Amino acid sequence: MLCIQTVIPMVTMYTPMALIVILPIFGKDIPYLGNLTSSSLAVYPLIEPIIAITCVATFRRAIRDMCHCRKKRPMPTVSRSFLSKLSGPQQCIL
């Protein structure tokens, strides 16, 4: 996870910015580099938590539970006749 979290900022932030600085020095021009850079800078905050959620098992389970993706076990039900047997001669009020 740490390797991925190290590579993603390099690809989405540092490399496009370095190209914006270095390419004009060599007289090269990429027409849409500014759009690519601003888009990649905007996408980075979205990608970072997704990496953490997919790599850490506790986070995955929490998201799965929040989305109700796992089947829940049915709650056991207690019948009135069972409750009346437990309470003895008193009446059970439900």
UniProtKB/TrEMBL annotation:
Pfam families: 7TM_GPCR_Str. The keyword Membrane applies. GO terms for molecular function: G protein-coupled olfactory receptor activity. The keyword Transcription regulation does not apply. InterPro entries: 7TM_GPCR_serpentine_rcpt_Str. The chain crosses the membrane at residues 7-26, 46-63. GO terms for cellular component: plasma membrane. One of its GO terms (biological process) is olfactory behavior. Keywords: Membrane, Transmembrane, Transmembrane helix. This is G_PROTEIN_RECEP_F1_2 domain-containing protein. It comes from Caenorhabditis tropicalis.
